Please model this.
Amino acid sequence: MPDATLSPWTMSYFAVACVFLVIGQGLMAAGYGYPFAGVDAPETLALAHLLAIGWLGLLMIGALLQFVPVLIAAPLRAGRLAPSVLLLIVGGLLLLAGGFAALGGAEGLDGLSPGMLPLGAFLLVTGFGLAAAMLASTLLSARALPLPARFVGLGLAALTATILIGAAFAAVLSGIVASDLLATLLLHGVPFHAALGLGGWLSFTAIGVSYRLLPMFMLAPEKVSGAARTVWWTGATALVLVAASVAVVFLDAEAAKTLLALPLVLAFVAVSFYCVDLVRLYRERKRKVVELNIRASYAAFAALLAAVVLISIPATRAAAGEGAAALVYLFAFGWLTGLGLAQLYKIVPFLTWLECYGPILGRIAVPRVQDLVNEGRANFWFGLYYGAVTAATASLFAGSLPSFRVAVAAQLAATLGLMAELVRARRLSSVKGAGVPKPRLFLPLSRPQE
Amino acid sequence: MGEAANGALCEEIREALRMIIDPELGRNIVDLGLIYDVSVEDGGIAHVSMTTTTKGCPASQYLKEAVRNCVWYVPGVEYAEVRLTYEPAWTPEMMAD
Model:
């Protein structure tokens, strides 16, 4: 029977993603983008895309290259495209960010120009398109898709829609396309672009993968519960409605915005059932001692619930600033980034273990995956991280720019601390005694699994 | 090989397999219930039926290879054949207390 193998490029995706997270948080701490500029200012758009594509997008693609084969117990299709996809996305993102910076007044600086936007969008459409094709064709090779894989499949569809809408925005912003229809989409379609990207692509996919990873790591029953089915149906319906509303934008933009209320209610229902299911999984787990990656993941789930509840209440949504920015921040950093960091803290040591100790297993005594990390230090960094995210969100609600910068600086420090822990795991720093050759830090596997 | 000797060799194989741990859970694969069956034919041909905690796990092939290597080094074993199966699927209830 064919099995999933180690994905040789996943670690490279993770490393590049981490660099973009540091750059994004560093820019915010330095006073770049929202709240130091408007939510629709070019600086904010540059920052948002560095984080959404550079950090979250690359993190998710890198993780899926490894986990989609696990979800369906089949090998990855066209895996040789992984390095090209990485280069296309990074190249496209840098051009896109440069184009936004030019729109923000940096035109002429080091050759920046709005003309970089469509070229960047072209590379991003190509890169994400190839990634979606690799992953979707792998999913389609399964005879029947288990529920977690269905979440990923719909997430990939949302990714495709997000990228295509974004490419249309880039074409209009750069001035290479003069179309009233696309201008209307640019004026009114940003909430749909954000909802499909953050809610559809990143969140729906993360929820799907979590339905496989959490039972694995906690030894909880892998049965598909009624709550999980409800999450699937309500979430999928919400996403289809958001996508359909994009078409309504061309007919009646205000009506399309009103239509967003229904997907929001459905998202609230989906997240509520998801949280109920997460509590069930935790209670039914056989592994009594819960490791740090799980504890940190549950903090991210709490942030998801808080963000969705608060955005569903008109008063808190209005108090969250332009475009509910404070709640979008909580969603992006508390939920998506928090979960991403928590899972990196498990996946990086796990893949490192397989790379270093898998080939000698059964010949000599080997350490556990858990022996590659030091939970005490990482526990502190995760605590600081979530405390800083809470403080930054509160600062945005209060409109306090100085305290926001301090909170983001603390968030950045925590992120760097966690990344240092990941490097220590890669370097096998916590493993005592003579061992095996250290793996490459982030370059592809030196010894691909056969 | 007599039945008693055969049983003793199977037990030796199980004992040897205790040095292999599941990397994530940190417990040996015998106590985790991942070894479904061990048998030895005349001539020292050992057959092991095993599973992993998760179907499709990237550690599966490493574990299978580790079991094959480990069994082969047990005195009295001339050849080792390992079969990875997910029928039945492993559940946490299969772990020894």
Q: What stands out?
A: Chain B touches chain A at residues 19-21, 23-26, 53-63, 65-70, 84, 91-92, 95 (CB under 8 Å). Residues 3-87 of chain B form a domain with the GMP Synthetase; Chain A, domain 3 fold (CATH 3.30.300.130).
